[in-house]
Design brief:
Oligomer: single chain
Number of strands: 33
CATH architecture of the largest domain: Alpha-Beta Complex
Structural class: alpha/beta
Distance between the termini: 46 Å
Shape: elongated
Helix content: 10-25%
Number of helices: 7
Strand content: 25-35%
CATH class of the largest domain: Alpha Beta
Number of domains: 2
Largest sheet: 12 strands, parallel
């Protein structure tokens, strides 16, 4: 079994963090997002993974090499953006035409039953089987109309709420038959959702597979933090996870649903958690509180500072008596000076110095 992971996106909604790394390298509970996906595929019997890469491809190649979790890793390079279907056609030689294969959007954290998906795909003789997820607001996604046999009769990409045919959305994980290659023009930008799936639906060759397990689309900062919370619930619900050589001063409180990386230093009376992931080589000062947040490696967060519902980039410096909250993103190596407050979805560009409070949504450049 082979799987193709679409890993070439720019991650524009998570800038400025995605300016300095591909989204698949974003840490979730102190492990890259792609690690969680690869591990799940390996335990599901997949033997080879192809990464369809474009933006910052070298970062993924350098980190993952040619094998991981017992699976072969290979790379299919786009020289220009090819949409969501073009990369599948481009990787045809690597995928082969001998058996069905999986395709995954790389920016999804899930515990989808891949074996169940493949079984359902084969049982229906489908050309494509889409994993489906019920959501309260389907307008952000591709939405399907499905019958009792799980055959998809229509596929509408990002409809208006009142025009959605159901609340079942495309979860971005597919089982595909090699026959799908005939529906995709080579070397062209082609949309799976807008051009391929509607045709297959009309021909009766498109089916759905409903999933009720963990599934998070990591598109926006609050989605990213939600994914981190979900994984922390799974791995640290009984006790926090502490890396090697962690130094915690007296009276610091570390709650459950927390992951702390190697060589982190935590000051006296600091409070970490719930739902905090602290990257390796980070310093947390006296009396500082961090909750529902992700701190990338190498950050310095000084004394009596509050980080709530925020993301702190790699090597960033946050001063004393600072407040960073409500979906704020601080870019890599930025400096936030003492007594500053950042709130309401403010984003701070990499290496930017901020010495005044920003209380309304905007980018600090």
């Amino acid at each position: 079994m082979k799987a193709l992971i679409l890993a070439g996106g720019f991650g524009t909604r998570l800038r400025p963090l995605s300016c300095t790394r591909p989204k698949l390298m974003f840490p979730i509970a102190n492990r890259p997002l792609l690690d969680w996906t690869l591990e799940k595929l390996a335990t599901s019997g997949v033997k080879e993974v192809i990464l369809a890469v474009n933006y910052m491809a070298h970062v993924l190649e350098d980190h993952y090499g040619v094998t991981r979790y017992g699976m072969k890793i290979s790379y299919s390079h786009e020289t220009k953006p090819l949409g969501t279907a073009g990369p599948i056609k481009k990787a045809e030689r690597l995928i082969g035409r001998n058996s069905p294969f999986f395709v995954l959007n790389g920016d999804i954290l899930s515990e989808i039953d891949y074996r169940g998906l493949l079984k359902a795909h084969k049982a229906k003789g489908a050309t494509a089987t889409i994993t489906l997820r019920a959501v309260s607001d389907p307008s952000r996604f591709g939405v399907v109309e499905i019958d009792s046999s799980n055959r998809i009769h229509s596929f509408v990409e990002k409809p208006k709420p009142e025009e959605a045919p159901s609340n079942l959305i495309n979860a971005g994980v597919y089982a595909l038959d090699p026959a799908v290659f005939r529906y995709i023009q080579p070397n062209e930008k082609v949309s799976m959702e807008r051009e391929v799936f509607p045709v297959l639906a009309k021909q009766g060759k498109l089916f759905g597979y409903k999933c009720d397990k963990l599934w998070v689309d990591i598109g926006k900062p609050n989605d990213y933090l939600h994914a981190n919370r979900c994984m922390l619930d799974r791995i640290s619900s009984k006790q926090p996870i502490l890396g090697k050589a962690v130094k915690i001063q007296p009276n610091a409180k570390i709650t459950r649903t927390v992951s702390i990386g190697n060589k982190v230093k935590i000051g006296e009376d600091a409070h970490i958690g719930p739902y905090a992931a602290i990257g390796e080589n980070t310093f947390v000062g006296k009396g500082t509180r961090i909750e529902n947040s992700i701190v990338f490696p190498g950050a310095w967060i000084d004394a009596h500072t509050s980080i709530r519902g925020a993301i702190i980039g790699e090597g960033a410096i946050v001063g004393q008596w600072v407040k960073v909250e409500n979906w704020v993103i601080v870019g890599d190596h930025a400096i936030i000076y003492d007594n500053v407050t950042l709130t309401q979805e403010v984003t701070v560009c990499p290496s930017k110095e901020v010495d005044e409070s920003v209380l309304e949504p905007r980018q600090v450049m």
